[in-house]
């Protein structure tokens, strides 16, 4: 995507990122801070989140706070408590990037282990839904809120062996579409499909692939910025590809 955002694109915006400790989420958190946002980091690993907050500060960004939430074990009550804690420090949320995700096993359907299947659904769908429910009141306080989910190519077209992960991403697309209709005119809701990107998850999914052939998280940030800022103000109910035209599957 060719997009040259204004340096102050996200000034006065408060943006929460899940899975902010690593990979694409870490890069998104750093990038949002560079464009002026006050960033709230959510994840399950305190040391990694603290390191991201420190980097934001070292780069001259606004001080960011981090909060621990393990999507694998979270309950609706834990999500409500998190929203409550956030509301003590912040008046509203202008953006939420649901980025945290779990891959599970890349094996045929008849070999998908039910406990791994349930973990993938819990992190990618159920936990993400519970957190969304808890954060909606804060998002609705913004006059230009943007709620962004993270999908995948296998969330739009099923592919052999992608099992629970693919099914969870179809569910993510559905959740986005339902919410986009329900909050039409109040909150925009979209998905990003990052496309193959050089992260730990990608290396686990394609261990034989040469990572150098992949875009880095930094390369795909233009779309992440565009969807959080006012340049995409009227867009809702859509899945956007961060790498349009890229053929899904292993990079040759
Ligand atoms: P990584 O594995 O590099 O990072 C995943 C992030 O999610 C980490 O911050 C991780 O935390 C966090 N996370 C995982 N499980 C939990 C949990 N139970 N509770 C809270 N946080 C959790 O993945 P990517 O950066 O590659 O992926 C980011 C998103 O993009 C995912 O939704 C993925 O499905 C999607 N995606 C990625 C593609 C790619 O090629 N990379 C392609 C298509 C979609 P921790 O640091 O503690 O492990």
TrEMBL record:
Keyword annotations from UniProtKB, A to Z: Oxidoreductase
Pfam families: adh_short (PF00106)
Domain annotation Ketoreductase: ranges: 13-198
SUPFAM superfamilies named among the record's database cross-references: NAD(P)-binding Rossmann-fold domains
Family: Belongs to the short-chain dehydrogenases/reductases (SDR) family.
PANTHER family: ALCOHOL DEHYDROGENASE
Name listed for the protein in its UniProt record: YciK family oxidoreductase
Upper lineage: Bacteria, Pseudomonadati, Pseudomonadota, Gammaproteobacteria, Enterobacterales
